């Protein structure tokens, strides 16, 4: 992996396009995710590594499913996402107490000096190059207080061999939401995997038909993530795996866990 910086001018905007399409039904499609439980577990990991304070920046916040439990726990939340429609939904959910901006993590502004920065639920898998990954992590690092922690997850090979190879149909709110994974159950380290998401209304007034829009994610091998973390001036404190129950376990296993979870901080010079 090269660690040289590249401009993201002309950057791939596929994630923004995909999330503009999925936004109106995102919460329904992901209703089975237990965020309060997952956030609680992640805060536990943070606490084990000295997490303190009450300010958090949620990068790639989507509709706010990750930050709402933090708001409920008294955290002062700032959040960003590349998709204006996801941001609009997050704002409606959170109200004025939470600052939520449209921003690309590859060009993330500095919003402050946060005790905690999170980037959750495979947001970084929408970055496809080493340079993008490093740049995004560097921008997250720039938002950390000296004692702060950055916690992010990345999908494992298991996710690309299962969810990205499956057809998943969810019916809710008078709509049929269809996820068509395209990997055929095969994924190699570093591979870019695709799935198409579409929506069919099942009754009048259930919203428009949404034609298939492709989600394109890269599997980031652990060695490459560690290299990007180091190149961004961070250090990995701990690494966990989890399955859909969200419970962090060690050691991470790409063949059984669906996500890996990285707990990082600004690199300390000793
Ligand atoms: C699977 S959703 C997860 C949303 C939220 N973190 C959660 O846990 O519910 C991934 C999010 O990452 C956002 N995203 C993808 N690429 C991004 C980028 N370059 N900058 C900011 N957000 C991005 C998408 O718009 C989407 O909302």
Number of strands: 11
Nearest-angstrom radius of gyration? 18 Å
Question: Which term fits the overall shape?
Answer: globular
* Helix-strand category: alpha/beta
SSE order, one letter for each helix or strand: HHHEHEHEEHEHEEEEHEE
Q: Give the CA-CA distance, first to last residue.
A: 26 Å
Strand order of the largest sheet: 3-2-1-4-5-11-10
Question: Mean of residue pLDDT?
Answer: 94
Give the fraction of residues assigned to helices: 25-40%
Bound small molecules, by name, code or SMILES, are: S-adenosylmethionine
Count of separate DSSP helical elements: 8
**Biggest beta sheet attributes:** 7 strands, mixed
* Unreliable spans: 1-9
What percent strand? 25-35%
Account of the 3D structure:
The protein is of the alpha/beta class and 270 residues long. The chain is built from 8 helices and 11 strands. It has a 7-stranded mixed β-sheet, with helices on both faces. A 4-stranded antiparallel β-sheet has the order 6-7-8-9, with helices on one face. The longest helix is centred in the first third of the chain and has 14 residues, at 35-48. It starts with 13 loop residues before the first helix and ends with a strand. Residues 1-9 have low confidence and may be disordered. The chain binds S-adenosylmethionine. The site of S-adenosylmethionine has 19 residues, from helix 1.
């Amino acid at each position: 992996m090269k660690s040289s910086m590249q401009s993201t001018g002309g950057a791939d905007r596929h994630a923004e396009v995909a999330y503009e399409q999925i936004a109106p039904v995102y919460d329904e499609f992901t209703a089975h995710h237990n965020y309060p439980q997952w956030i609680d577990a992640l805060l536990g990991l943070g606490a084990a590594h000295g997490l303190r304070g009450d300010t958090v920046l949620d990068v790639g916040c989507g509709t706010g499913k990750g930050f709402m439990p933090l708001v409920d726990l008294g955290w002062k939340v700032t959040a960003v996402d590349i998709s204006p429609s996801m941001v609009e939904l997050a704002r409606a959910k959170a109200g004025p107490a939470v600052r939520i901006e449209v921003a690309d993590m590859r060009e993330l502004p500095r919003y402050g000096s946060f005790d905690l920065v999170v980037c959750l639920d495979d947001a970084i898998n929408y970055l496809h190059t080493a340079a993008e990954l490093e740049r995004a992590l560097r921008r997250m690092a720039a938002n950390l207080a000296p004692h702060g922690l950055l916690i992010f997850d990345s999908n494992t090979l298991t996710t690309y061999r299962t969810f990205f190879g499956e057809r998943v149909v969810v019916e809710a709110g008078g709509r049929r939401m269809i996820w068509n994974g395209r990997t055929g159950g095969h994924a190699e380290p570093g591979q870019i995997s695709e799935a198409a998401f579409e929506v069919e209304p099942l009754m009048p007034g259930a919203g428009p038909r949404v034609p298939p829009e492709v989600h394109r994610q890269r599997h980031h091998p652990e060695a490459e993530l560690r290299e990007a973390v180091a190149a961004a001036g961070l250090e990995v404190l701990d690494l966990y795996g989890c399955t859909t129950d969200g419970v962090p376990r060690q050691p991470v296993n790409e063949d059984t866990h669906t996500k890996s979870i990285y707990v990082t901080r600004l690199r300390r010079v000793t």
